[in-house]
Structures are given as C-alpha cells and as structure tokens.
Amino acid sequence: MPTVYDYNVKKTDGEIKSLQDFEGRPMIIVNTASKCGFTPQFKGLQELYKAYHNDGLEILGFPSDQFNNQEFDDIDETMQYCQRNYGVSFWMFDKINVKGEEADPLFTFLVNEQKGILSSAIKWNFTKFLINREGQVVERYAPTTDPKKIEKDLKKVL
User: Fold this and answer.
1) What are residue 130's phi and psi, to 5 degrees?
2) What is the pLDDT, as a whole number, of residue 49?
3) If we measure between CA atoms, which residue out of 35, 34, 60 comes closest to residue 45?
4) pTM, rounded to two decimals
5) Contacts of 132 (CB under 8 A, 6+ apart)
6) What is the pLDDT of residue 115?
7) pLDDT tens sequence across 146-155
8) What is the Cα–Cα distance from 101 to 34, expressed in whole angstroms?
C-alpha cells in the first residue's frame, strides 16, 4: 500500500528530499500562499509545530501559486516573508502545482487518499492533510479550517 514515504519533494535550495526521512513521524502537509486571506494560518501551524514537534510532529508547507497568483515569484522572498511575519520554522519546500495535469505527484496521492467535498481536487490555498506515523493520510481539512481545530485529531496520531 503506497504511503507518503514513497515520494520525493524539492527543497527550496533545489535539492531533492525523500519523505522517507520522516518515517514514523506524524505530519501535517499543507499547500500555502503568502498573499492569501488564509495566510494568517501560518501562525496557527507554527503554534502546533512548537507545541508538538518534540512529540514527533512535522509540518511540511508547499507554496503554490495556482490560486489567483497569491505567492511570490521568488522562493527566497516566500521564505523570508514566512519567517519574518509568522516565525515559521517548520519545513517549507519549493513552489509546486497542487492541482491539474502538472500537479506534484505527492499532492495527486494526497487528494486520491482523502477526497474533498464534491471533488478530490484542491480548491484553494491551505488545504491540510494529516498523516499518521505509518505514512497514511488519515484526514483532510478545508482551507477554512483553523489549524487549532486539527489539534484533537493530531493528538490521536501522536
């Protein structure tokens, strides 16, 4: 059975990282944007990361520009913005596509594992996926879901 550990992603410096490196650690995987109405969710995600990282939690952020061009063109600008405004210290990766024919294979896997309401496609920035320690997608959260509301489910996979 496939898991998120079967995928590789590109770091902001262009190097490839295997998600196998996170084996045994629960994760929240989220598509992000720096200029979106939901951008303040970075604060809530960072709070979850600080609270539960010592218990094994990893958060993996994937900037995407597919929804009204709400991401900076330069990934360094994205990183600076996230760190300066929200203190983001969790994993952030290179900008990717999360929907359509050019979607990153990881996000194709995620949406096939946890369908959304009416459609499996990601409809906006800050769609969040909860991954258990076995690398399986156990829950999907809408862009409108505040990260604090994930905490109850997160505790179950810690």
Assistant:
1) -100, 130
2) 98
3) 60
4) 0.95
5) 26, 138, 157
6) 76
7) 999 999 999 9
8) 23
Rounded CA gap, 107 and 36, in Å? 20
Q: Which tokens belong to 71?
A: 């991401």
| Containing structural domain, residue 73 | 4-157
Phi, psi (degrees; rounded to nearest 5) at 103: -60, 140
Q: Two tokens at 80? A: 């600076």
Residue with tokens 């990934």: 75
CATH number at residue 107: 3.40.30.10
Counted domains in the chain: 1
CB 128 within 8 A of CB 30: yes
Below-70 pLDDT ranges, the chain: 116-119
Catalytic annotation, residues: 36
57 contacts 26 by C-beta, under 8 angstroms? yes
Which SS3 state, helix, strand or coil, does residue 107 take? helix
Would you state the pLDDT for residue 117? 65
How many Å apart are CA 134 and CA 157, to the nearest integer? 10
Q: Please list the residues that pair with 129 across neighbouring strands.
A: 29, 140
User: What does the pLDDT read at residue 54?
Assistant: 98
Return the sign of the alpha-carbon dihedral for residues 75, 94, 10, 43.
positive
